[in-house]
Design brief:
The protein is an alpha/beta fold and 205 residues long. It contains six helices and seven strands. Helix content is 39%, strand content 18%. It is elongated.
């Protein structure tokens, strides 16, 4: 069963702005998918610090999930190797997107195994969840918030400028002014020491 088009449109509306905000751009998926994909769609995004593949799987069939995610992860392995991933210069993320929350024990276990495996790259299963505060409208936000690279907080309002620092002691200002006017460093230093010794309670060594 293929996913309704608007489910993927809703995903794009949430995912693409998040990716753009953290420096990702769309690229061609770097490998040719198997001939029999059964509606699975692979998209790729790149940033200077990471690659991200999104695998859109139009059913919750465990075998289709395994096939789709395995192909994406193996492609990620090859791409990170090309980029010199041995020095951890680039991170990798694979998102497995399904059209509805998993309900069968088999599908849940399949997705759990996918997420728990940390070989090659970071892995996240995502799907739209009903929003009880908005007439049960679906949103991908809850699952996308779990993806570290996409969950940065929105820019905050500019902080109120701090008050300018209070001026330093008067004698430091005098020294600064004398030096600016071209007075000798040695003369200014000697005068500063003399004045300091004259202050009550000051004991120069």
């Amino acid at each position: 069963m293929s996913a309704p088009t608007n489910v993927w449109q809703e995903l794009d509306a949430e995912l693409i702005p998040r990716l753009s905000a953290v420096g990702f751009r769309v690229i061609d998926f770097p490998a040719n998918p198997p001939t029999e994909t059964n509606g699975v769609v692979y998209t790729a995004f790149a940033a200077p610090y990471a690659l991200l593949f999104c695998v859109r799987i139009p059913s919750t069939n465990p075998q289709q999930i395994v096939n789709g995610t395995n192909f994406a992860c193996e492609t990620m392995r090859a791409e990170l190797a090309k980029a010199g991933a041995k020095d951890w210069s680039r991170d990798g993320y694979v998102l497995a997107a399904i059209q509805t929350a998993p309900s069968s024990p088999e599908t849940k276990q399949c997705l759990r195994s996918f997420e728990l495996s940390r070989s090659v790259c970071r892995r996240h299963a995502i799907w739209p969840e009903p929003q009880t505060t908005n007439n049960n409208a679906r949103s991908w936000a809850g699952r996308l918030d779990r993806v570290t690279v996409l969950a940065f907080p929105e820019a905050e309002a500019p902080a109120i400028p701090a008050e300018p620092p209070s001026p330093g002691p008067k004698f430091l200002e005098d020294i600064h002014n004398r030096l600016k006017s071209g007075a000798s460093y040695k003369v200014v230093a000697e005068e500063a020491m003399r004045l300091a010794r004259e202050k009550e309670g000051f004991h120069a060594s």
